[in-house]
């Protein structure tokens, strides 16, 4: 397990223990964190599981693959917006803070 | 079978086109006879009943069954009926391929395929990566004013008449306008496109479907050739220049891409709009709720997309596997009927009921790597259509003398219905 902190636009921290090798999206959807819809179920095909990486974590999260990047525009990429279904939970990400943008 | 399907008597009220038995693909030997069940959604079939009224009884039956003629009207297919099973098949590209679910190229003796809808790994991800940037939420948001302008054009055109034929006067043409805009094709082609689209998707006569496909393909090839010489700011030009991982679209992929946009973005939007207006016309309370609270429209649209889901794509088995304990063998077709899954009683309590703020996930846009690429555009078109209609038009209903026929497949759709209001 790794601790993932999902901070919603109202400033509330939803703290979840998420299984290693699952995704940051899965940890949110399975435990009812609001604002992450993940309509495609984790295939980087819908862009409805967006999170913004906290500045402190940008360098520690592996970069997006081409498929994920293709769903985000340059402005999103500059703001470190990611598709949470493409961020695989590893022990190194214990404590990861992501911000859930308001719809 | 009669006890399993109490609604079986209703099947007398379906008009299914006859097929010469020599054209029917025989039922594979491994299909257990007790799993061969009736299925109304056969290509070209029509009925005067509400097409979704056949569904509840199916949910008393097995989780997956075999339906004769469920694929292209001539071949049987497995029909899974639950959200879980559809999720499983959508996500399984080891045992199932998407290639071959649309018959258009084969019908005219060619072998291109829909890009990216019919692409499989490993090429699917590359193709989808190439196409995704065209349909991001932000890019679609930039079309808001244009789309609203088109919607208003139609609505203001019939507002003072006190009624309209919803399909002919609005639902068919409106998404074509948006499509032509996106593709960079001239707007005076709307009538032409409508005719072609109809031939392709709603003609019971196979020869007409073939003719329609050929007309669209010839036209798209001409336009592609033109954009090679005169590139513009449009999707065809973009497709020509597109390059990813050192590769460009081949000639066939470019055609498959343009054809995919044509086939994917027109009738599906028209149909979902039709069901939303059909429902609200028959449910004046919900209509007035949305008129008073337009902010509820997006959630309401998704709920109506669930209850009135209309699309079934399919997969073909490429490696033997099991679904809900049933053996599926290579070559078997598996239908993905979103209209059955939308009424799955395990996933949705009281599945037949439209609860405007239910906010339930649905599979009406599909699921997994092939999830509808035009989802963000489609939602925008449907929302704007409903917003503008409710703003401009007072309480509307279906004309009392209306005699409505519904298509059961390839898409579940009212052929036409007249709306009336006090002008």
Structural overview:
The complex is a heterodimer of chains A (103) and B (423). Chain A has one domain: Ubiquitin-like (UB roll) (Roll). Chain A has 3 helices and 5 strands, in the order ββαβααββ. Chain A has helices at 24-29, 66-69, 74-78; strands spanning 2-7, 13-18, 50-53, 81-83, 96-99. Chain A has a 5-stranded mixed sheet with strand order 2-1-5-3-4. In chain A, strand 1 and strand 2 form a beta hairpin. Chain A is globular. Chain A starts with a strand and ends with a strand. The mean pLDDT of chain A is 96. Chain B is α+β, with helices and mostly antiparallel strands. Helices cover 43% and strands 13% of the residues of chain B. Chain B has 17 helices and 16 strands. Chain B has helices spanning 55-58, 83-91, 104-107, 123-131, 137-141, 144-158, 166-171, 173-183, 190-202, 206-229, 235-241, 251-265, 267-282, 284-292, 297-307, 338-341, 375-392, and strands spanning 14-15, 46-47, 64-71, 75-80, 96-97, 163-165, 243-244, 247-248, 312-317, 321-323, 326-328, 333-337, 397-398, 406-407, 413-414, 418-420. In chain B, helix 8 packs antiparallel against helix 12 (251-265) and helix 10 packs across helix 12 (251-265). The A-B interface holds A 37, 39-41, 43, 45-47, 66-67, 69-73, 75-76 and B 87, 90-91, 125, 128-130, 132-133, 136-139, 244-245, 361, 365, 367-371, 373, 375-376.
Note the main attributes of this structure:
heterodimer; A: 103 residues; alpha+beta; Ubiquitin-like (UB roll); 3 helices; 5 strands; B: 423 residues; Cytochrome p450; 4-stranded antiparallel β-sheet; 17 helices
Tell how many strands the DSSP assignment of chain B holds: 16
Order of helices and strands of chain A: EEHEHHEE
Biggest interface pair, counts: A-B, 17 and 25 residues
Largest sheet composition of chain B = 4 strands, antiparallel
Overall structural class of chain A, as computed from helix and strand content, comes to alpha+beta
- Which sheet architecture does the biggest sheet of chain A show? 5 strands, mixed
Mean pLDDT of chain B: 94
